[in-house]
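Model it.
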Amino acid sequence: MRVAAVDLGASSGRVMAAEVGPDRLELTEAARFPNGPVRLGDTLHWDLLALYRGLLDGLRAAGPALDAVGIDSWGVDFGLLDRTGALLGNVVHHRDARTDGVAQRLGETFPPAQLYGATGVQVMPINTIYQLVAAAGTPQLEAATDLLLLPDLLAYWLTGARRAEVTSASTTGLLDVRERDWSAEVMRRAGIDPGLFAPLVEPGERVGEVAPHVLADTGLSGPVPVIAVGSHDTASAVVGVPAEGERFAFISCGTWSLVGVELDAPVLTEESRVANFSNELGVDATVRYLRNVMGLWLLQECLRAWPGADLLALLDDAARAPAFAAVVDAGDPGFLAPGDMPERIAAACRRTGQEPPRDRGATVRCVLDSLALAHRRTVREAVALSGRAVDVVHVVGGGARNALLCQLTADACGLPVVAGPVEATALGNVLVQARALGAVRGGLPEMRALLRATQRLERYEPQGDDRAWAAAERRLGQPAPA
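Modeled.
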């Protein structure tokens, strides 16, 4: 069986073609295309039409014979449609400054503890609920009849069907995490119209079929169903974690590091809220209990500030640089927006009484030590707050290629790290499609067994002295749970 995974990330999108069967899981890249923010006036946008064009080109390259298509992307961002189904303006980027201070303002009338008790989502200015509160009264929102998150919007353009996939919906701060359904009460209290939101679907359900004009444009041989997958990319990535059993932590490591454990039910305690953990919905009625860490965004922005820099050479320099010469809080909101990241890192070091990195290699080592510290803290807090014991940490996504970061994460966590697959998100996407079509049978354990049998993995054993990591945490005033 041949299916296509449309996998959209913050810096690029791609269409991956997969051959899938009971003992077969082969993935090839059909097309890749750039993605990035576009500033228009004072507002940061996504170039969604360019992404859609890349999607169509990718399907053309993956075809002509496809049994299904599934789409995943990042969460929280959305398009607004008018009553004719037309897109109302450019999609605003979640890093845009329009949400500055909105969470605090909403918290004055809707206490955060009550909001968390319903949605289980960590407070982040990027969340859809805060984007909508910030957009209140704007002409676009006033004219809108429908809101679709990005994977749902692209599926609508392919099929004409308006649906909301539940794993992506759970990132919005507008979903009742216990009921796996929209929360009209949360929307009412936030001043958001519940009528904007489409009916929910679970991963594995058919959204619709690729429309005739899209078939003609891409050269695909119809009919081609579009199947809801874990449309939030982390949901698909966690399906793609090759874990054996349930005693594992995951780090989906890309622009963001999504760090957590997989559970059967949400954790909605006050301690969990204060620790800013999210309960995001996963495939097969699971919960992704996690916290967002700034991730490789820090390194990506450093590279943007150093045009022409050679990443492999910088990583070699970082490996030779002294450990813990300087560390920063990788979750500092000051690192969220695009900008001169090396200078921001230097400024954060000065604020904490540390000597800033002296060169680029030292800056990269600071970033990787700091990310490993953040991984350590988050894994330990997830274990303590959820009660789920962990024997191994799985690192998937682009960060699995970074051997130094994987080793540092093993050292920091004091646990073995299994790195790979790099393409966990696309693999999770295609596995859910294949199961829906009957080419793969069973639940998450069976799908993960297929991953272990077919994908290349690397294992890193912890090394060094845990006391050095504990001392580095104390430098930031952030001792992790034991």
